[in-house]
């Protein structure tokens, strides 16, 4: 009752002074619009209103959602991560929780409208998204790359929202977009300075630095394994690879036609392995969320051995094999009628190493890699990393346990966390609690040795970790992780109770008990 009353108090305050805005300023009562002014609190609160049985407030909010115009904003760019988790996730969660009722269909319609806009952020040579997407036509119409310094969590925390959108709409392109990110992160995961985890900043540009071109062992990545996929042309027909905008890769038609026979054969080989489009289930959320099968068109199910080969593309869900041509055409048809004027088809990867803006041969294709050769990188479950790790077991559940890639990536990361980040804080009553700290790793310039510096810092943002450990422990049969999850949650409770106000600080440093956390 107290929790519900607190939620009602917060909602009423927003409704009275900032309804339709992103945020209410709690002290002045003013409004704040950091997330494009589309009503972040309004959309992000929908599922909470439904769960708490506040149906009238939910209905009022849904009516307001219908008036949101995602095609315009006073902000020049779109923060992809924030907009995805707050708006796209909020709309989809509310639609699912409310039973996908026809009277709430506007929630899905708006999710599709927004999804089309966000999908255009992936229009880069290596398909890594621009995490701050400058979407105005003057910029969006020009060739561009993903950032050379992006926040890891902003790149790795898009999977669930885009996957569920693909399921609900039958549009596999949304899933394929995030599957490419997952594949790249998997390639880099065990090649970082702390194998199993990623640093808080990543170079997602797809271009290696000079030292990395020469064979630097530190985080070079491996690049995309073929980029062929089925897309639709203007007639709705299936084609391999999206249309190339003329001249974007610095080659004229004669130069492009002169590519060697060997390269053509390699491309055909990639196509035979990679271009079999598969599609997530378009049925309701219930069975998948409970670990059920993800069906495919025609009533058959995903093969149960999917993901057993670690390098298999996860976007292969499920096969088009056995479908009629009409059914195939339907699956690869143009996007739904909710597509906005901002919809763009992705450009094909450039066929040379030339910069699409200058024509200079400065880009050596590369996968995800470090932003620095020698300086310290930070590894943590806290800010700039947190949700990437949290999404791995949740995405595994969303896909009904059929994509083993998410399990292996999660388990690799958790082992690194247990080995390097957990510590036991000194407490007056010697409580058996844990905190997840922070590890900085640099490289010695003279001998190339790793220099590790552990910091016994705690963050409020790491308080999700207890639940993540417990969830992963249950679904992956790791009972010791459930106990670790309890201790991590107790660590956050201890941090709350240790302050005069009873409010845990956003960040703090704690004295650390000697020895490892798991020693008696």
UniProtKB/TrEMBL annotation:
It is an enzyme of class 3 (hydrolase). Keywords: Disulfide bond, Glycosidase, Hydrolase. The keyword Hydrolase applies. GO terms for cellular component: endoplasmic reticulum; membrane. GO terms for biological process: carbohydrate metabolic process; ERAD pathway. Its EC number is 3.2.1.-. Residues 342-354 have a biased composition (Basic and acidic residues). It comes from the Eukaryota. InterPro entries: 6hp_glycosidase-like_sf, Glyco_hydro_47, Glycosyl_Hydrolase_47, Seven-hairpin_glycosidases. Residues 206-362 are annotated as: Disordered. Pathway: Protein modification; protein glycosylation. GO terms for molecular function: calcium ion binding; mannosyl-oligosaccharide 1,2-alpha-mannosidase activity. Its cofactor is Ca(2+). The keyword Transport does not apply. Belongs to the glycosyl hydrolase 47 family. This is alpha-1,2-Mannosidase. It comes from Hortaea werneckii. The lineage of its organism: Eukaryota, Fungi, Dikarya, Ascomycota, Pezizomycotina.
């Amino acid at each position: 009752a107290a929790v519900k009353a607190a939620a009602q108090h917060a909602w009423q305050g927003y409704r009275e002074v900032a309804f339709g805005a992103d945020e209410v300023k709690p002290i002045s009562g003013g409004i704040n619009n950091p997330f494009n002014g589309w009503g972040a609190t309004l959309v992000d609160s929908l599922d909470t209103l439904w769960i708490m049985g506040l149906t009238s407030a939910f209905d009022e909010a849904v009516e307001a959602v219908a008036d949101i115009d995602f095609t315009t904003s006073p902000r020049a760019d779109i923060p992809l991560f924030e907009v995805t988790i707050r708006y796209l996730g909020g709309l989809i969660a509310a639609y699912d929780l409310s039973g996908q009722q026809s009277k709430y269909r506007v929630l899905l319609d708006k999710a599709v409208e927004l999804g089309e806009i966000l999908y255009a952020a992936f229009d880069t040579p290596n398909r890594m998204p621009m995490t701050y997407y400058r979407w105005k036509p003057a910029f969006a119409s020009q060739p561009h790359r993903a950032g050379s310094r992006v926040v890891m969590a902003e790149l790795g925390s898009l999977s669930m929202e885009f996957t569920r959108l693909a399921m609900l709409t039958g549009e596999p392109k949304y899933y394929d977009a995030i599957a490419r990110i997952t594949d790249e992160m998997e390639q880099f995961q065990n090649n970082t300075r702390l194998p199993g985890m990623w640093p808080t900043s990543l170079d997602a540009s797809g271009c290696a630095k000079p030292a990395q071109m020469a064979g630097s062992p530190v985080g070079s990545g491996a690049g995309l394994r073929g980029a062929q996929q089925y897309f639709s042309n203007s007639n709705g027909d299936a084609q391999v690879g999206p249309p190339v905008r003329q001249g974007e890769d610095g080659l004229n038609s004669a130069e492009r036609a002169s590519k060697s026979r060997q390269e053509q054969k390699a491309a055909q080989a990639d196509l035979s392995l990679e271009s079999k489009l598969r599609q997530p289930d378009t049925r309701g959320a219930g069975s998948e969320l409970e670990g059920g099968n993800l069906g495919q068109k025609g009533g058959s199910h995903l093969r149960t051995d999917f993901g057993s080969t670690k390098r298999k593309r996860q976007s292969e869900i499920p096969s088009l094999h056995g479908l009629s041509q009409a059914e195939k055409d339907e699956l690869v048809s143009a996007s739904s009628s909710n597509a906005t004027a901002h919809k763009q088809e992705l450009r094909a990867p450039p066929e040379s190493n030339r910069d699409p803006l200058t024509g200079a041969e400065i880009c050596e294709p590369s996968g995800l890699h470090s932003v620095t050769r020698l300086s310290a990188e930070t590894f943590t479950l806290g800010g700039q990393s947190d949700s990437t790790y949290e999404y791995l077991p949740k995405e595994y559940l969303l896909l009904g346990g059929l994509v083993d890639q998410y399990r292996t990536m999660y388990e690799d990361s958790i082992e690194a966390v247990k080995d390097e980040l957990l510590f036991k804080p000194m407490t007056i009553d010697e409580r058996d609690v844990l905190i997840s700290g922070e590890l900085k790793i640099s490289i010695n310039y003279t001998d190339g040795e790793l220099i590790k510096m552990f910091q016994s810092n705690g963050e409020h943002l790491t308080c999700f970790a207890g639940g993540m450990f417990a969830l992963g422990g249950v679904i992956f049969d790791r009972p010791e992780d459930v106990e670790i999850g309890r201790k991590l949650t107790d660590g956050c409770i201890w941090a709350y109770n240790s302050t005069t106000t009873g409010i845990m600080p956003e960040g703090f440093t704690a004295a650390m008990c000697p020895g490892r956390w798991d020693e008696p």
